[in-house]
């Protein structure tokens, strides 16, 4: 009935199931309107169990001035060529509106989209303070471009790049900019990226180079307060670098997430020595790291020493390890920077 209606501008399907007749009907509708003098058509699909590949067929049939969006839970995904055409417009519009938080999680982003976003972050009128890009398809190329954008951006405080495919070279690019430039970023999350150790997939970068940049990022006072490195391939070697960097007591990091790595007893013991000499770090997570009684005892001694020295650790979280960690305590503080505390500090430091 609405196939040729000039007044139709939006179709909303809420929990519409997966009827096989539904998508062909939608494709027929949008194709019939192509090339005719109709207003832009938006197709919004909320919480429906429709195959994304099938939705791409709808997206490819849409006229240039139309769009298809798929919304499910926390995710909002624009599909196919329509996404590539409208992505920059979406972010640009939010910048023009003075929006301070942009959530692009699970958005199907690729490196080209991150590069568009980086260009917009460099603009004089950008007031965005927090950007989340986790659960996308971003690589080191995207991280490198976003790092360059930080040099000229004076407002961005929080950036989450978790759950992507960023390797060592992307981490190095970001660390280099943070250490060498006066940037505003205070919250950086690399959780679930293959950066270090056996999980690293970047054969173009020597391991000593990435370790050197890790040490610099933690030991320099660059304004960074939170660093998320959960499930990034950390092991004993990386713990030695972190321990030395924390021992210097010259950095700015107050919270660090190290969960779901391969730290073990020896790594925890090494790490505890550096944290014991530090007075700046106040919160860390070491959950699911294969830490037994030896490592747990070392962290316990560190906690006690810090408390006696007058610079206590506010939070130490070690659940999911081999030894009983019931003595550890604290709540995640200073999660901040909004987007619901960056989704409550990625569910409490990942």
Structure description:
With 350 residues, the protein is α/β, with parallel strands linked by helices. The chain is built from eleven helices and twelve strands. The chain has helices at 22-33, 52-61, 80-96, 111-121, 140-152, 168-180, 207-219, 236-248, 264-276, 293-309, 339-349; strands at 10-14, 42-46, 67-72, 75-78, 101-103, 130-132, 158-160, 187-189, 226-228, 255-257, 283-285, 315-317. It has an eight-stranded parallel beta sheet with strand order 5-6-7-8-9-10-11-12, covered by helices on one side. Helix 10 links the parallel strand 11 (283-285) and strand 12. Helix 6 packs parallel to helix 7, helix 8 packs parallel to helix 9 and helix 9 runs parallel beside helix 10. The longest helix is centred in the first third of the chain and has 17 residues, at 80-96. The radius of gyration is 23 Å and the shape is elongated. The model is unreliable at 70-85 and 330-350 (pLDDT under 50).
């Amino acid at each position: 009935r609405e196939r040729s209606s000039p007044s139709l501008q939006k179709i909303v399907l809420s929990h519409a199931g997966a009827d096989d007749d539904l998508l062909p009907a939608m494709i027929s509708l949008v194709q019939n309107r192509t090339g005719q003098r109709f207003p832009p058509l938006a197709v919004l699909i909320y919480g429906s169990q429709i195959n994304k590949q099938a939705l791409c067929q709808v997206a490819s049939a849409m006229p240039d001035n139309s769009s298809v969006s798929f919304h499910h839970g926390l995710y909002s995904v624009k599909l196919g060529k329509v996404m590539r055409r409208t992505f920059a417009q979406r972010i640009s519009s939010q910048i023009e509106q003075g929006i301070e938080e942009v959530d692009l999680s699970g958005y199907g982003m690729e490196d080209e989209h991150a590069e568009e976003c980086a260009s917009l972050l460099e603009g004089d009128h950008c007031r965005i303070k927090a950007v989340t890009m986790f659960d996308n398809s971003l690589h080191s190329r995207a991280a490198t471009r976003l790092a360059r954008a930080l040099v000229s951006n004076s407002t961005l405080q929080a950036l989450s790049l978790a759950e992507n495919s960023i390797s060592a070279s992307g981490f190095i690019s970001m660390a280099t900019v943070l250490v060498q430039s006066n940037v505003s970023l205070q919250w950086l999350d690399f959780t679930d990226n293959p950066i270090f150790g056996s999980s690293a997939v970047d054969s173009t970068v020597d391991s000593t180079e990435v370790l050197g940049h890790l040490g610099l990022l933690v030991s320099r006072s660059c304004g960074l307060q939170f660093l998320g490195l959960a499930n990034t391939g950390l092991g004993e070697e990386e713990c030695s670098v972190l321990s030395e960097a924390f021992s210097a007591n010259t950095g700015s990091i107050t919270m660090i997430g190290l969960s779901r790595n391969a730290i073990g007893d020896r790594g925890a013991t090494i790490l505890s020595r550096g944290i014991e000499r530090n007075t700046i770090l106040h919160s860390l997570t070491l959950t699911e790291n294969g830490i037994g009684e030896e490592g747990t005892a070392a962290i316990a001694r560190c906690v006690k020493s810090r408390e006696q020295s007058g610079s206590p650790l506010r939070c130490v979280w070690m659940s999911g390890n081999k030894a009983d960690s019931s003595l550890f305590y604290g709540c995640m503080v200073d999660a901040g920077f909004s987007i619901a505390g960056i989704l409550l500090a990625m569910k409490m430091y990942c």
